[in-house]
């Protein structure tokens, strides 16, 4: 590559190349214009085949160990990504436990069961809300003692209450179950949550929209909120594409207005916009033609290309504005312009594209696609500018350049901008040392600031203040022990039922309490909690018996009793049928990835210092954890890409200028 750059920067080949391209553009301008139009139509034909990828999980490689384990854990424990629907009523002394609100909760639960959609991958099958795993007052059990050594299970709310007394009875039953407090019902009774598991998290926005429409029918005085990481991720994907559809034309309109203010010629101002449009269509069309979907990241490609692709054409127009006179004519003027600008435009295009091409080295697949196609788009824009700008100027009638150029801007010699720039230049020359010292201080301050960067992400905070998803995040996390979830999966020796052992369950329970007491998580649920609750009801229902029984046989009895409920399959969300692996469901009151990372490090430290009764290995799963993994890879991947692009561009500058000093100056 260095040899190629050396050759390209030699005067003879560079002069030959720019002369050849300029002659082609000026002599065969109609053919160039037709070729450009044909190119846009060719690549534009692929755009209707564009597919969208709104799944943030695809920011990781399919073979990424964390992603592979996440999907394996979901399958092993029959877990689903879940939407959380919360209702809050703070202006009532009984909170949400009144007949009207509970009737609305019941109606919404029944409606959620109907949210099924045709599965495009499996004709005849449907996908949507997993009814069997829903959590809501009408589909969870009230567990209570039915006699010595016997437990009865009945639906907590088989029908909406008719009176306030019935509503309060439902509240008391819900609050008697520690598994539901902080998860389905708030401790103060002011809020309730419905958990709607999905067969596919990509359905989250459809379900979210359907629920919003249904909630509008209720009226009432309660506040409804829909939250959860799948909702936030789905909404980001959908709304970001919508925002780009709006932002792209607005950006184009703004640039168009600024160009007109500078050049005051509609016929010339449309030129950069046409080049930007062709560049975007050709680049996106090529990406679609090669089979790449448009991801959340690559949806920003039009904005990047629009701002970058017009730069060279503006340079050409600005220089043409300076040198053109009627006496000199279009042909000689554009030759002079291209002779002056060809090499610097080539250098800047090569270095810009090299910076974006460095993204190809990252571990983030959509970032690689984004970087590669922006890099290609930059080079394509340069080629279009070199060929089409001279051709376009030759296509214009001479009369359309009347009052353009030197005659038009001679009066600008004493303009405010000219005077400011002139004085600024004089100051920089007279006070060179002062300027260098100030810039040095800025660099030192910037390095200090960079050392305090905090790597964090929170999907809810990507939305503006006041957005329903952000408000839902705030309201529900204030009332509950967390709407963000991750899983701690523990593995014993394969084939050994280690999670029937009381000492192992006590160890799990101790770990859970330690995490909650130290603020790492808001709440957790595990097999240990289920066994404790069943044991309590089997004995006498008193709080002191909410504990792990003392024998493996008693643990097995608790599990068997739990499986007499209306939803016996729920147990397998927390333990495998052979009891060799267990899952701890952890809730977080913040979507910050830093909270997840802190919990992960705390668990590792705890297990290292407090060895379990039997050898146990462990790993993490859940969207909240996957998001944390992605953030780390994104940050370090982009940092590596930045360093790589810096090195590549530095080498290019040193070669192009044949000077290490000038190369370093360019980088500064």
Characterize the structure shown:
The protein has 668 residues and is an alpha+beta fold. It is built from 22 helices and 13 strands. A 4-stranded antiparallel beta sheet has the order 11-12-10-13. Strand 5 (141-147) and strand 6 (150-155) form a beta hairpin. The longest helix has 35 residues, at 229-263. The protein is elongated and about 110 Å long. The relative contact order is 0.12.
Low-confidence stretches: none
Number of strands: 13
Shape: elongated
Mean pLDDT: 87
Helix/strand structural class: alpha+beta
Binned, the helix content reads 55-70%
List the helices and strands and how they pair.
Blueprint: H1 2-9, H2 11-27, H3 29-44, E1 52-53, H4 65-76, E2 81-88, H5 99-113, E3 116-118, E4 126-128, E5 141-147, E6 150-155, H6 164-175, E7 191-198, H7 204-216, E8 223-227, H8 229-263, H9 266-289, E9 294-295, H10 301-323, H11 329-357, H12 365-395, H13 406-409, H14 416-430, H15 432-450, H16 468-479, E10 484-491, H17 502-517, E11 523-525, H18 527-539, H19 552-562, E12 581-588, H20 593-609, E13 617-621, H21 623-657, H22 660-667
Parallel strand pairs: 1-9
Antiparallel strand pairs: 2-7, 2-8, 3-4, 5-6, 10-12, 10-13, 11-12
Helix pairs in contact: 1-21, 2-11, 2-12, 3-9, 3-12, 5-7, 8-9, 8-10, 9-10, 9-12, 10-11, 10-12, 11-12, 11-21, 18-19, 20-21, 21-22
Give the structure's gist in a few sentences.
The protein has helices spanning 2-9, 11-27, 29-44, 65-76, 99-113, 164-175, 204-216, 229-263, 266-289, 301-323, 329-357, 365-395, 406-409, 416-430, 432-450, 468-479, 502-517, 527-539, 552-562, 593-609, 623-657, 660-667, and strands at residues 52-53, 81-88, 116-118, 126-128, 141-147, 150-155, 191-198, 223-227, 294-295, 484-491, 523-525, 581-588, 617-621. It is of the alpha+beta class and 668 residues long.
